[in-house]
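Appendix B: complex inputs.
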Amino acid sequence: MFVSPARPEQQEKPILTNGIKIFVLLFFCLPFAILLLQSFSAGWQWPRLLPGTFSWRAWQSLSREPRMIPAISITLLIGLAVSLINLILGIPAGKGLAHYRFRGKSLVEAVFLLPLLIPTLAVVMGIHIFMIRVGLTNTVWGVILVHVIPTLPYTIRIFRHAFENLGSKWEEQAATLGASQLTIYRTVWLPLLIPSIHSALMLSFVISLSQYALTAIIGGGNVVTLAMVYFPYFQSSNRSVLACFTVIFALLPLSFYLLMYSLYKLFIRGPGHYRGC
Amino acid sequence: MLLQTVNLIKKFDHRVVLGRVNINLWDGEILSLIGPSGSGKTTLLKCIAGLEPVSGGNILVREKDVTGQKANQRPVVMMFQQPLLFPHLTVMENIIYGLKIRGTEKKTMMAAGEEMLQKIELPGYTRRYPFELSGGQQQRVALARALIMKPQILLLDEPFASLDPELRSSIRNWVRRLLKREEVAAIFVTHDREEAMIMGDRLAVMIRGRILQEGSPFEVYKKPANRDVAELFSDGLVLDDRRFVPVDAITVSDSEQQVNKDGFLAFKGRVAANWIKAGHHMIRVEVPELGREVSLPASKTYSVAEEVLLVFPRDRVYIFPQNNLEMEME
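Resulting structure:
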């Protein structure tokens, strides 16, 4: 409930942070550093520890790729839209599952989870036919909608868990003080859910970012996201160009995170302490 | 009459939680509602506050039926066991939360907030956050947040349950004075006898979803309506479903002399515990014959496991006006 001074956490901190540090170094910083080095190398032969020569060549050749800027923009746009749709659908769904008892609840839960259990490609074959009928194929909207399929189950789970943890007591307290449902969402749930909103936005953005098959099928080659440009590069023999591309690809979620973080800092006042509740 | 519940029924699935509850509350009155945990006290408050839909019956506020009204439209504010201060808002923002929703002008709102902070003796806490406050302070802010709304009815659901005993006894006197000064009518739920007596002008005893007795705290204490009420609220020895001996009629004796006297009854007992309370030696005696225990003052110290006699005059045996069996049939 109310967050007491974080004493127990502080005691655990040294071990935890050291573990995290090693983990981050080994599995995040090191691979990324190698990628960066590779992107600037002009030949890196085994068994040399570092590249023999460095050059801008790979970056220059990538900057000549005309689809790059439009692809990044459309990817960001789709990612943003997918994340927002996830919030709009995921928050009420999560709340419904956490706080209400109704007939057929387990069925609804199972349906919400299905996209994770059934191969999305199988589902999309059917959806493709539907989208052709309603004229959503080859459009950005179609791609946005189809990206919601693999992301929404996660978002619903995140919010369900958050609402279960918060309980309905906050809502009751606000209601008895005169707040309507809408006001309760605005003044109580949204601020209390910020950590979960943060996770849900990040997760849906990253999942949307890495969709290739879904985008290809529904977008039909008309909607060219970064993944559509990126994946064919795997076949290229130039490892440095591929490394450049990968760096750019990795920077997208990172910049999205920074954007979210600054928005979060800008609009949410108050102590950081409550965020854990 | 300010508040009236008429044959209020609440069922969860098919389990009856409230069975035809009739409660009255008058202007400016504090009604203590006492009952063991799970007796439906909180559910009753939630129904009155509009946080739980009722399964039957009506809730009237000043003779107006509010049963169908939503919680945020009722002139009722409920305060819970936990302070539930919104952690992302400052103390002041918490206090004026309800006024802000009502659309009160900012100046008026801030002035009322400052006044409330004075009343709860926390001036200067305007910009603090709830986590910086102690449990008792949080509960006081929660009370301010409720009182600032000037509700016609305030519902308090064991608001001191999470506080330590010392703080609890000081804060309850303080809350009672504040409620009286603000002339707010309140229903105060508790499972603590002492608290119920101190807080309430009137008392209602709720057991298994029914109101078994209503009256002034002393009246209920001295004249319990039935066995359940006696066991919950009075001190003494319940002999059976019909009879009860108040503790002040019982003397503890270790000789058998008195028993032979006419007009006296005695039960053998064994001392289960002893302690001192308010300067008096107290013992807890198990009475195997009745399968019950009773706590009572003793004139001298007894050791645990010592055999004693509980002696009382026959004419002090009190006969319950209600029979439990009849209650169940009703």
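Residues 165-182 of chain B form the longest helix (18 residues).
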